[in-house]
Amino acid sequence: MLPYLWAYFANLIRVVVLYYVGYYYGIEKMMFVHVYLGWIIFIIISFGVMTVLNKRSGGAVGQKLCQLYTVFRNKDITSMLTNKRKKPPYTEMEASPNSLGGQ
User: Fold this and answer.
1) How far is C-alpha 31 from the geometric centre of its chain's CA atoms?
2) Closest CA to 45 of 100, 4, 92, 103
3) Domains held by the chain: number
4) What is the pTM (predicted TM-score) of this model?
5) What is the CA radius of gyration of the chain?
6) Which domain holds residue 24?
7) For residues 50 and 37, which has the higher predicted lDDT (pLDDT)?
8) Looking at residues 37-54, what average pLDDT do you find?
9) Average pLDDT of 16-25?
């Protein structure tokens, strides 16, 4: 429930700041702030949520993130993205090449 409240209040703060900047500095400055402020608030809120989850889990979240970082650091990303898996055998519901009139 806490992350939802954080997200709600973060968005509320973002909208208030956008109105303030738009009113006092004009639409051009407001659009500039609009582009970057959402990302800045997202990073701050994400860090806060991760910190709370890490404290509640006794550090398990941080340990898992370190493990994931180590796995990704040691692997070639392109090989992970182009992971060639064996095609499973045909099931009864699927057509096999021979049932399509092939020789």
Assistant:
1) 24
2) 4
3) 1
4) 0.50
5) 25
6) 2-75
7) 37
8) 84
9) 94
Q: Which amino acid is at 53?
A: L
DSSP 52-98: HHHHHTTTHHHHHHHHHHHHHHHS-HHHHHT--PPPPPPPTTSPPGG
59, part of any domain: yes
58 token code pair: 């006794």
Q: What are the CA-CA distances from residue 20 to residues 13, 29, 33, 72, 95 (Å)?
A: 10, 11, 11, 42, 63
Structure token digits, residue 73: 């650091």
- Tell me the one-letter amino acid at 41: I
Compute φ and ψ for 10, nearest 5 degrees: -65, -45
User: Has residue 85 been placed in a domain?
Assistant: no
In a domain? residue 84? no
Tell whether 103 is covered by a domain: no
Query: Residue 101 — very low, low, confident or very high, per pLDDT cuts 50/70/90?
Result: low
